[in-house]
Protein backbone atom coordinates (compact mmCIF):
# COMPACT_ATOMS: atom_id res chain seq x y z
CA UNK A 1 0.00 0.00 0.00
CA UNK A 2 1.30 3.46 -0.93
CA UNK A 3 2.48 5.93 1.72
CA UNK A 4 0.26 8.51 0.01
CA UNK A 5 -0.62 9.90 -3.41
CA UNK A 6 1.03 13.07 -4.65
CA UNK A 7 -0.01 15.31 -7.54
CA UNK A 8 3.13 16.63 -9.24
CA UNK A 9 2.50 19.63 -11.49
CA UNK A 10 5.14 19.97 -14.19
CA UNK A 11 6.05 16.35 -13.49
CA UNK A 12 7.55 15.58 -16.92
CA UNK A 13 9.96 18.51 -16.64
CA UNK A 14 13.55 18.23 -15.46
CA UNK A 15 13.19 18.57 -11.69
CA UNK A 16 9.58 17.37 -11.67
CA UNK A 17 10.47 14.07 -13.32
CA UNK A 18 13.34 13.38 -10.91
CA UNK A 19 11.12 14.24 -7.94
CA UNK A 20 8.45 11.89 -9.30
CA UNK A 21 11.11 9.18 -9.48
CA UNK A 22 12.17 9.85 -5.86
CA UNK A 23 8.55 9.70 -4.68
CA UNK A 24 7.89 6.39 -6.44
CA UNK A 25 11.11 4.90 -5.09
CA UNK A 26 10.02 5.87 -1.57
CA UNK A 27 6.56 4.33 -1.52
CA UNK A 28 4.35 7.12 -2.88
CA UNK A 29 1.96 6.91 -5.81
CA UNK A 30 2.19 9.84 -8.21
CA UNK A 31 -0.21 11.64 -10.54
CA UNK A 32 1.50 13.97 -13.03
CA UNK A 33 -0.10 17.03 -14.62
CA UNK A 34 1.91 18.69 -17.40
CA UNK A 35 1.04 20.55 -20.60
CA UNK A 36 4.32 19.39 -22.24
CA UNK A 37 5.19 22.99 -23.15
CA UNK A 38 8.85 22.46 -22.28
CA UNK A 39 9.05 18.72 -21.62
CA UNK A 40 8.36 15.31 -23.12
CA UNK A 41 5.88 12.59 -22.19
CA UNK A 42 8.75 10.13 -22.77
CA UNK A 43 9.99 11.12 -19.31
CA UNK A 44 7.14 9.00 -17.92
CA UNK A 45 8.56 5.94 -19.73
CA UNK A 46 12.05 6.59 -18.36
CA UNK A 47 10.69 6.99 -14.82
CA UNK A 48 9.01 3.59 -15.20
CA UNK A 49 12.19 2.01 -16.63
CA UNK A 50 14.21 3.10 -13.60
CA UNK A 51 11.65 2.63 -10.80
CA UNK A 52 9.52 -0.20 -12.18
CA UNK A 53 6.45 1.92 -11.37
CA UNK A 54 4.48 4.14 -13.72
CA UNK A 55 2.97 7.42 -12.55
CA UNK A 56 -0.48 8.37 -13.82
CA UNK A 57 -0.20 11.13 -16.42
CA UNK A 58 -2.65 13.84 -17.49
CA UNK A 59 -1.85 16.36 -20.20
CA UNK A 60 -3.40 19.55 -18.85
CA UNK A 61 -2.51 23.19 -18.33
CA UNK A 62 -2.08 24.51 -14.81
CA UNK A 63 -4.19 27.59 -15.70
CA UNK A 64 -7.17 25.49 -16.88
CA UNK A 65 -9.30 25.14 -13.76
CA UNK A 66 -11.83 22.75 -15.33
CA UNK A 67 -9.07 20.40 -16.53
CA UNK A 68 -7.28 20.53 -13.18
CA UNK A 69 -10.53 19.99 -11.30
CA UNK A 70 -11.16 16.89 -13.44
CA UNK A 71 -7.76 15.46 -12.48
CA UNK A 72 -8.50 15.85 -8.77
CA UNK A 73 -11.95 14.34 -9.29
CA UNK A 74 -10.45 11.35 -11.13
CA UNK A 75 -7.94 10.77 -8.32
CA UNK A 76 -9.69 11.32 -4.97
CA UNK A 77 -6.73 9.54 -3.34
CA UNK A 78 -4.48 12.60 -3.91
CA UNK A 79 -3.49 13.96 -0.48
CA UNK A 80 -0.58 16.28 -1.30
CA UNK A 81 0.80 18.43 -4.12
CA UNK A 82 4.33 19.22 -5.25
CA UNK A 83 4.10 22.24 -7.52
CA UNK A 84 6.68 22.79 -10.26
CA UNK A 85 4.63 23.93 -13.27
CA UNK A 86 5.87 27.37 -14.34
CA UNK A 87 7.64 29.38 -16.97
CA UNK A 88 11.21 29.69 -15.73
CA UNK A 89 13.56 31.77 -17.93
CA UNK A 90 14.90 34.88 -16.21
CA UNK A 91 15.66 36.72 -19.46
CA UNK A 92 12.39 35.83 -21.15
CA UNK A 93 10.40 36.87 -18.08
CA UNK A 94 11.49 40.47 -18.65
CA UNK A 95 10.31 40.33 -22.27
CA UNK A 96 6.85 38.80 -21.69
CA UNK A 97 6.05 39.62 -18.04
CA UNK A 98 2.28 39.33 -18.34
CA UNK A 99 2.59 35.74 -19.57
CA UNK A 100 4.83 34.91 -16.59
CA UNK A 101 2.30 36.37 -14.15
CA UNK A 102 -0.59 34.65 -15.96
CA UNK A 103 1.00 31.20 -15.93
CA UNK A 104 3.05 31.24 -12.74
CA UNK A 105 0.81 33.23 -10.39
CA UNK A 106 -2.53 32.56 -12.08
CA UNK A 107 -1.77 28.85 -12.40
CA UNK A 108 -0.85 28.62 -8.72
CA UNK A 109 -4.10 30.30 -7.68
CA UNK A 110 -6.04 27.85 -9.85
CA UNK A 111 -4.17 24.95 -8.24
CA UNK A 112 -4.89 26.18 -4.71
CA UNK A 113 -8.59 26.65 -5.55
CA UNK A 114 -8.79 23.04 -6.75
CA UNK A 115 -6.90 21.83 -3.68
CA UNK A 116 -9.39 23.57 -1.39
CA UNK A 117 -12.35 22.16 -3.33
CA UNK A 118 -11.00 18.60 -3.06
CA UNK A 119 -9.65 18.94 0.50
CA UNK A 120 -5.99 18.42 -0.47
CA UNK A 121 -4.09 20.30 2.21
CA UNK A 122 -0.31 19.88 1.80
CA UNK A 123 1.65 21.76 -0.87
CA UNK A 124 5.39 21.72 -1.51
CA UNK A 125 6.23 24.69 -3.74
CA UNK A 126 9.26 24.68 -5.97
CA UNK A 127 10.36 28.28 -5.42
CA UNK A 128 13.76 29.73 -6.26
CA UNK A 129 16.83 31.44 -4.87
CA UNK A 130 15.96 34.32 -7.21
CA UNK A 131 13.51 35.53 -4.54
CA UNK A 132 16.49 36.88 -2.60
CA UNK A 133 17.77 39.02 -5.47
CA UNK A 134 21.18 40.55 -4.85
CA UNK A 135 21.96 39.26 -1.36
CA UNK A 136 25.29 41.13 -1.39
CA UNK A 137 23.27 44.32 -0.77
CA UNK A 138 22.85 43.21 2.87
CA UNK A 139 26.00 42.62 4.96
CA UNK A 140 26.59 39.06 6.16
CA UNK A 141 24.10 37.37 3.82
CA UNK A 142 26.49 35.27 1.71
CA UNK A 143 25.97 32.31 1.87
CA UNK A 144 22.26 33.16 1.84
CA UNK A 145 20.14 32.13 4.87
CA UNK A 146 16.33 32.01 4.83
CA UNK A 147 16.24 35.19 6.92
CA UNK A 148 17.84 37.16 4.06
CA UNK A 149 15.46 39.96 2.99
CA UNK A 150 13.44 39.13 -0.10
CA UNK A 151 14.25 41.38 -3.06
CA UNK A 152 14.01 39.81 -6.53
CA UNK A 153 15.64 41.64 -9.43
CA UNK A 154 13.63 40.14 -12.29
CA UNK A 155 10.08 39.26 -13.26
CA UNK A 156 10.59 35.51 -12.81
CA UNK A 157 11.76 36.05 -9.22
CA UNK A 158 8.85 38.39 -8.53
CA UNK A 159 6.36 35.73 -9.66
CA UNK A 160 7.96 33.27 -7.23
CA UNK A 161 7.69 35.75 -4.33
CA UNK A 162 4.05 36.40 -5.20
CA UNK A 163 3.27 32.66 -5.23
CA UNK A 164 5.01 32.22 -1.86
CA UNK A 165 2.76 34.98 -0.49
CA UNK A 166 -0.39 33.48 -2.01
CA UNK A 167 0.42 30.05 -0.53
CA UNK A 168 1.18 31.59 2.87
CA UNK A 169 -2.06 33.58 2.91
CA UNK A 170 -4.12 30.57 1.82
CA UNK A 171 -2.62 28.18 4.38
CA UNK A 172 -3.05 30.71 7.19
CA UNK A 173 -6.62 31.51 6.15
CA UNK A 174 -7.61 27.83 5.94
CA UNK A 175 -6.07 27.19 9.37
CA UNK A 176 -7.95 30.15 10.88
CA UNK A 177 -11.23 29.13 9.22
CA UNK A 178 -10.88 25.60 10.59
CA UNK A 179 -10.06 26.89 14.06
CA UNK A 180 -13.07 29.21 14.05
CA UNK A 181 -15.28 26.31 12.97
CA UNK A 182 -14.02 24.16 15.84
CA UNK A 183 -12.17 21.78 13.51
CA UNK A 184 -8.51 20.65 13.57
CA UNK A 185 -6.53 23.71 12.46
CA UNK A 186 -3.25 22.08 11.45
CA UNK A 187 -4.34 20.26 8.28
CA UNK A 188 -3.13 22.91 5.81
CA UNK A 189 0.65 23.13 5.35
CA UNK A 190 3.09 24.55 2.82
CA UNK A 191 6.81 24.18 2.13
CA UNK A 192 8.57 26.94 0.18
CA UNK A 193 11.72 25.41 -1.29
CA UNK A 194 14.15 28.06 -2.46
CA UNK A 195 16.62 26.08 -4.46
CA UNK A 196 19.68 27.04 -6.34
CA UNK A 197 21.08 25.80 -9.68
CA UNK A 198 20.04 22.23 -10.53
CA UNK A 199 22.36 20.19 -12.71
CA UNK A 200 23.33 16.63 -13.61
CA UNK A 201 21.36 13.63 -14.85
CA UNK A 202 20.50 10.10 -13.75
CA UNK A 203 23.69 8.00 -13.41
CA UNK A 204 22.09 5.29 -15.58
CA UNK A 205 22.39 7.66 -18.55
CA UNK A 206 18.76 7.23 -19.62
CA UNK A 207 17.13 10.22 -17.92
CA UNK A 208 18.13 13.87 -17.88
CA UNK A 209 17.18 17.37 -18.91
CA UNK A 210 15.67 17.66 -22.38
CA UNK A 211 14.45 21.23 -22.89
CA UNK A 212 12.31 21.86 -25.96
CA UNK A 213 14.38 24.56 -27.65
CA UNK A 214 17.28 26.58 -26.26
CA UNK A 215 18.13 25.63 -22.66
CA UNK A 216 18.54 28.46 -20.19
CA UNK A 217 20.88 26.87 -17.66
CA UNK A 218 24.67 26.79 -17.86
CA UNK A 219 25.40 23.06 -17.81
CA UNK A 220 22.83 21.99 -20.43
CA UNK A 221 24.19 24.75 -22.67
CA UNK A 222 27.71 23.43 -22.13
CA UNK A 223 26.42 19.98 -23.02
CA UNK A 224 25.18 21.29 -26.37
CA UNK A 225 28.54 22.96 -27.00
CA UNK A 226 30.29 19.67 -26.20
CA UNK A 227 28.13 17.72 -28.67
CA UNK A 228 28.60 20.35 -31.37
CA UNK A 229 24.97 21.43 -31.38
CA UNK A 230 26.07 24.93 -30.37
CA UNK A 231 29.25 26.70 -31.47
CA UNK A 232 30.09 28.25 -28.12
CA UNK A 233 28.83 29.20 -24.71
CA UNK A 234 27.91 32.82 -24.04
CA UNK A 235 29.25 34.04 -20.69
CA UNK A 236 27.12 36.92 -19.47
CA UNK A 237 29.62 39.31 -17.92
CA UNK A 238 33.18 38.95 -16.62
CA UNK A 239 33.21 42.17 -14.58
CA UNK A 240 31.62 40.88 -11.38
CA UNK A 241 33.41 41.26 -8.03
CA UNK A 242 34.44 37.58 -7.97
CA UNK A 243 37.85 35.91 -8.20
CA UNK A 244 37.60 35.57 -12.00
CA UNK A 245 34.98 38.20 -12.80
CA UNK A 246 32.11 35.79 -13.50
CA UNK A 247 28.94 35.27 -11.49
CA UNK A 248 28.91 32.79 -8.59
CA UNK A 249 26.19 30.15 -8.30
CA UNK A 250 25.43 27.17 -6.05
CA UNK A 251 25.08 24.06 -8.22
CA UNK A 252 23.08 21.13 -6.82
CA UNK A 253 22.72 17.68 -8.37
CA UNK A 254 19.15 17.07 -9.49
CA UNK A 255 19.03 13.80 -7.48
CA UNK A 256 19.84 15.73 -4.31
CA UNK A 257 17.24 18.35 -5.19
CA UNK A 258 14.59 15.67 -5.73
CA UNK A 259 15.37 14.09 -2.36
CA UNK A 260 14.97 17.55 -0.79
CA UNK A 261 11.42 17.81 -2.12
CA UNK A 262 10.68 14.35 -0.74
CA UNK A 263 12.12 15.34 2.67
CA UNK A 264 10.01 18.52 2.75
CA UNK A 265 6.82 16.60 1.93
CA UNK A 266 7.55 14.06 4.67
CA UNK A 267 8.17 16.93 7.11
CA UNK A 268 4.81 18.56 6.30
CA UNK A 269 2.95 15.29 6.75
CA UNK A 270 4.66 14.48 10.04
CA UNK A 271 5.05 17.86 11.73
CA UNK A 272 2.22 19.98 10.25
CA UNK A 273 4.24 23.20 10.68
CA UNK A 274 2.05 25.64 8.73
CA UNK A 275 4.24 27.40 6.16
CA UNK A 276 8.01 26.96 6.23
CA UNK A 277 10.76 28.07 3.86
CA UNK A 278 13.95 26.10 3.31
CA UNK A 279 16.99 26.62 1.10
CA UNK A 280 18.05 23.60 -0.93
CA UNK A 281 21.65 24.08 -1.95
CA UNK A 282 25.13 22.72 -1.43
CA UNK A 283 26.56 25.78 0.31
CA UNK A 284 29.41 25.79 -2.25
CA UNK A 285 29.67 28.64 -4.74
CA UNK A 286 31.27 28.14 -8.16
CA UNK A 287 31.98 30.75 -10.81
CA UNK A 288 30.94 30.35 -14.44
CA UNK A 289 34.58 29.91 -15.48
CA UNK A 290 35.06 27.21 -12.82
CA UNK A 291 32.04 25.36 -14.19
CA UNK A 292 33.34 25.57 -17.75
CA UNK A 293 36.67 24.19 -16.57
CA UNK A 294 35.05 21.34 -14.59
CA UNK A 295 32.84 20.24 -17.47
CA UNK A 296 35.63 20.62 -20.04
CA UNK A 297 37.73 18.26 -17.91
CA UNK A 298 35.02 15.57 -18.04
CA UNK A 299 34.57 16.02 -21.79
CA UNK A 300 38.32 15.89 -22.33
CA UNK A 301 38.80 19.14 -24.22
CA UNK A 302 38.42 22.88 -23.76
CA UNK A 303 34.96 24.12 -24.68
CA UNK A 304 34.70 27.44 -26.55
CA UNK A 305 32.98 30.42 -24.98
CA UNK A 306 32.49 34.14 -25.59
CA UNK A 307 32.06 36.82 -22.96
CA UNK A 308 29.11 39.15 -23.64
CA UNK A 309 27.28 41.82 -21.63
CA UNK A 310 25.54 40.95 -18.37
CA UNK A 311 21.91 39.88 -18.52
CA UNK A 312 19.29 42.13 -16.97
CA UNK A 313 18.43 40.94 -13.46
CA UNK A 314 21.52 38.77 -12.94
CA UNK A 315 23.31 39.12 -9.60
CA UNK A 316 26.84 38.44 -8.34
CA UNK A 317 26.37 35.57 -5.90
CA UNK A 318 23.61 33.05 -5.26
CA UNK A 319 25.17 30.59 -2.82
CA UNK A 320 22.93 28.84 -0.30
CA UNK A 321 23.23 28.48 3.42
CA UNK A 322 21.46 25.09 3.70
CA UNK A 323 21.88 24.77 7.48
CA UNK A 324 18.15 24.93 8.24
CA UNK A 325 17.27 22.15 5.76
CA UNK A 326 20.19 20.09 7.06
CA UNK A 327 18.89 20.43 10.61
CA UNK A 328 15.09 20.33 10.25
CA UNK A 329 14.64 18.09 7.21
CA UNK A 330 17.62 15.85 7.91
CA UNK A 331 18.64 16.56 4.32
CA UNK A 332 21.94 17.50 2.78
CA UNK A 333 23.58 17.17 -0.61
CA UNK A 334 25.42 13.89 -1.18
CA UNK A 335 26.66 14.33 -4.74
CA UNK A 336 29.52 16.53 -5.93
CA UNK A 337 29.97 18.94 -8.79
CA UNK A 338 32.15 16.29 -10.42
CA UNK A 339 29.29 13.77 -10.11
CA UNK A 340 26.95 16.24 -11.81
CA UNK A 341 29.38 16.86 -14.67
CA UNK A 342 30.01 13.12 -15.14
CA UNK A 343 26.29 12.29 -15.14
CA UNK A 344 25.38 15.16 -17.45
CA UNK A 345 28.07 14.21 -19.98
CA UNK A 346 26.97 10.55 -19.92
CA UNK A 347 23.44 11.75 -20.69
CA UNK A 348 24.16 14.26 -23.47
CA UNK A 349 26.94 12.26 -25.14
CA UNK A 350 24.82 9.14 -25.40
CA UNK A 351 21.44 10.82 -25.93
CA UNK A 352 22.21 13.77 -28.24
CA UNK A 353 18.52 13.94 -29.22
CA UNK A 354 17.36 13.67 -25.62
CA UNK A 355 14.02 11.92 -25.34
CA UNK A 356 13.55 11.99 -29.12
CA UNK A 357 15.64 8.82 -29.40
CA UNK A 358 15.82 5.44 -27.71
CA UNK A 359 18.44 5.18 -24.96
CA UNK A 360 21.51 3.04 -25.68
CA UNK A 361 20.68 -0.67 -25.34
CA UNK A 362 23.76 -1.20 -23.19
CA UNK A 363 22.43 1.34 -20.66
CA UNK A 364 19.11 -0.49 -20.46
CA UNK A 365 20.91 -3.82 -19.91
CA UNK A 366 23.09 -2.28 -17.18
CA UNK A 367 19.97 -0.91 -15.49
CA UNK A 368 18.33 -4.34 -15.54
CA UNK A 369 21.49 -5.96 -14.20
CA UNK A 370 21.60 -3.50 -11.30
CA UNK A 371 18.02 -4.39 -10.37
CA UNK A 372 18.66 -8.15 -10.52
Automatic annotation (TrEMBL):
<comment type="function">
    <text>Mutarotase converts alpha-aldose to the beta-anomer. It is active on D-glucose, L-arabinose, D-xylose, D-galactose, maltose and lactose.</text>
</comment>
<comment type="similarity">
    <text>In the N-terminal section; belongs to the NAD(P)-dependent epimerase/dehydratase family.</text>
</comment>
<keyword id="KW-0119">Carbohydrate metabolism</keyword>
<comment type="subunit">
    <text>Homodimer.</text>
</comment>
<feature type="domain" description="NAD-dependent epimerase/dehydratase">
    <location>
        <begin position="6"/>
        <end position="281"/>
    </location>
</feature>
<dbReference type="GO" id="GO:0006012">
    <property type="term" value="P:galactose metabolic process"/>
</dbReference>
<keyword id="KW-0299">Galactose metabolism</keyword>
<keyword id="KW-0520">NAD</keyword>
<dbReference type="InterPro" id="IPR005886">
    <property type="entry name" value="UDP_G4E"/>
</dbReference>
<dbReference type="Pfam" id="PF01370">
    <property type="entry name" value="Epimerase"/>
</dbReference>
<comment type="similarity">
    <text>In the C-terminal section; belongs to the aldose epimerase family.</text>
</comment>
<dbReference type="GO" id="GO:0003978">
    <property type="term" value="F:UDP-glucose 4-epimerase activity"/>
</dbReference>
<keyword id="KW-0413">Isomerase</keyword>
<comment type="pathway">
    <text>Carbohydrate metabolism; galactose metabolism.</text>
</comment>
<dbReference type="InterPro" id="IPR036291">
    <property type="entry name" value="NAD(P)-bd_dom_sf"/>
</dbReference>
<protein>
    <recommendedName>
        <fullName>UDP-glucose 4-epimerase</fullName>
        <ecNumber>5.1.3.2</ecNumber>
    </recommendedName>
</protein>
<dbReference type="GO" id="GO:0005829">
    <property type="term" value="C:cytosol"/>
</dbReference>
<dbReference type="InterPro" id="IPR001509">
    <property type="entry name" value="Epimerase_deHydtase"/>
</dbReference>
<comment type="pathway">
    <text>Carbohydrate metabolism; hexose metabolism.</text>
</comment>
